[in-house]
Please model this.
Amino acid sequence: MTEEKNVQEETLPTEAVTAEAPVDSEPIDIDGDGLETKVAELEESLQASEEKYLRLYAEFENYKKRTRTELETEKTYRSQAVLRDIIPTLDNIERALSQTSADASLTKGVQMVYDNLISALTEHGLEKIEAQDQPFDPNFHQAVMQEKDESKDSGIVLEELQKGYKLKERVLRPSMVKVNE
Model:
């Protein structure tokens, strides 16, 4: 009997060899519900990661679009400050041209300078705001006076007291006008 006992002690039970699970997870129970639970958890984690990625991607695309739009707007309106500074000079040249002068060559020279200046500013997007005989628009006109004229409809600009200008769609200076009551 002692021999039998020794043989049994020498014979060790064989264990099933399994793949080692990752360090941060629990061992997977192949036969039970543990595998299905683990698969469901991994699918949820994958779905959450995909949603996070898609949100970040959409946010980045919106950022790129917003930045591109801001750069285009900046490019379009970069001359705005310079044009605002030049508008009073245009007013002064127009006043000089409206004065009758005995020296026709001087008047012609000032007119040429004015025409060249207007041409250059127009190429950079400066536009005059039409006011005379137009319906009053508070976006483009600043009413400083009212007058009654029976021959015209109410709300029509009777006289432009100071020219208004805009750059593309932005008003640099509204037209100062007299409006019919």
The longest helix spans residues 34-76. The first strand starts at residue 126 and ends at 129. The helical segments are 2-10, 34-76, 80-98, 104-123.
